[in-house]
Every structure is written in structure tokens, then in C-alpha cells.
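Lab manual, section 2.4: Encoding a predicted structure.

Procedure: take the sequence of the chain (54 residues), apply the prediction step described in section 2.3, and record the output as C-alpha cells. A sample record is shown.
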Amino acid sequence: MKKKLLIELFIYIVIVVIGFILIFTYKPKHKPIDIPADYKVARSENSVFVSIKQ
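Recorded output:
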């Protein structure tokens, strides 16, 4: 029983270590947001509204 708990604890530690490595080494790709010329962007204090000219 004790051996099974140690194996389970070791597996959890390995998963946590791999998670920390992935968190600190992940570099997301930055994609620019392209807004076409026919969109009208109106900004207010708390939000941004995008309307389409038709």
C-alpha cells in the first residue's frame, strides 16, 4: 500500500514539474489584428464597437 502511494506521489510531482516547465517556456505567436477599411470603429470609455458599412 505504501509503495503504491509513493508511485502515485511521484507521478503527480512529475506532472507538476512538466506543467511548470511548459508555463515558463511557452511563447505565444503574436498575430496583428487587421481591420478592413470598410469597418468603422467607435471607442467609448468602457468598450469598443465595430460596425459594418453596407
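Check your result against the sample. The chain has a mean pLDDT of 80.
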